[in-house]
Amino acid sequence: MIWLIGCKGMLGSEVAKQLDEKKLPWIGTDREVDITDPQALIDFTNKIETAAYFPSDLRKADRKIQWIINCSAYTNVDKAEEEPELAEKLNATGPLNIARVARSIGAKLIHISTDYVFDGQGTAPYTEDLPKAPLGVYGKTKAAGEDAIMKEMNTYYIIRTAWLYGFDGKNFVYTMTKLMNSHDQIRVVNDQKGTPTYAPDLASVILRFIDKSDNAKSFFGKNSAPAYGIYHFTNAGQTNWYEFACEIYRLGRKFGRIKQECTVNPCTTEEYGAKVQRPAYSVLSKDKISKSLKLKIPEWQNSLEKFIKSDRFNP
Ligand SMILES: NC(=O)c1ccc[n+]([C@@H]2O[C@H](COP(=O)([O-])OP(=O)(O)OC[C@H]3O[C@@H](n4cnc5c(N)ncnc54)[C@H](OP(=O)(O)O)[C@@H]3O)[C@@H](O)[C@H]2O)c1
């Protein structure tokens, strides 16, 4: 049994969809089981054993929670500066509570983290072993969440991602599409580099960790399951927000999502005047995850095209 926490969020809803498609036994919770309340998490794991939660044909053995996937978080980067206590509760205390419960029931944990744990002063893709140096409240609280998990348990996969967009949630692609349909000129910063991540691509990687671990074969005592620890995942390639917006415009026009002409103008972060300092360079190295899971990571432009073309696209 897989327990998906944050199942109604942008990434969580995508993981839920793929768990259904793969017919894996899972149960999802969101705000109704508050991750900041340790007792609520414990109570839930106790209740899960009861028939009330499941169709009676689900075997008792399948009710044991073997995996927890945590997609819940405080994700509003700007607002986190005004609500640091709440961000801390959700991004640091929440993962600590989840890790404690996971350890107590012997479950493995997959937790999602962010490129914002780095300061973005780098010039080459960030590898997993580089020291964290978060700039703002969001990054600091996410970094604290990672630390709490690593201190509390050993059987975890922390997946750091960046520039996430998906069907069910506020994201850059939807925001740009709406702006381009209502303005003839927009400005987008061109001095922050990174790589977009299509939520369905990340969801399938999360499921691959589970599949690779559960179906690991032992050859001469060697386990082929991916080693526990931190992994980076985004789509392949790199870009900046301005170029990303230009590609959204091109594809949006091509597939009828953007109904009018709009000029996309580049500007600097300083000219734009954002409230929170964001990493200038946040490209993550995917070498470790590609090797461990034998992945061929889709290029960001190809995944963006899939998103914009999809029937589910609904900005
Ligand atoms: N979005 C990005 O660009 C981005 C980039 C890098 C990393 N990430 C990471 O990726 C993960 C998924 O992000 P996302 O964008 O899919 O997040 P999201 O859409 O904000 O989803 C988070 C979910 O957690 C729920 N939640 C809030 N408080 C909770 C609580 N106390 N207990 C249980 N659930 C609660 C939220 O409910 P409400 O909606 O009702 O608040 C929401 O359904 C996060 O760990 C995030 O830090 C995201």
TrEMBL record:
Enzyme Commission number(s) from the entry: 1.1.1.133
Similarity comment: family membership: Belongs to the dTDP-4-dehydrorhamnose reductase family.
Gene Ontology terms: cellular component: cytosol
Identification of the protein by name: dTDP-4-dehydrorhamnose reductase
Any GO MF annotation of the entry: dTDP-4-dehydrorhamnose reductase activity
Species lineage: Bacteria, Pseudomonadati, Spirochaetota, Spirochaetia, Spirochaetales
Family annotation (SUPFAM superfamilies): NAD(P)-binding Rossmann-fold domains
Keywords per UniProt: NADP, Oxidoreductase
Domain RmlD-like substrate binding: 2-310
Pathway linked to the protein: Carbohydrate biosynthesis; dTDP-L-rhamnose biosynthesis
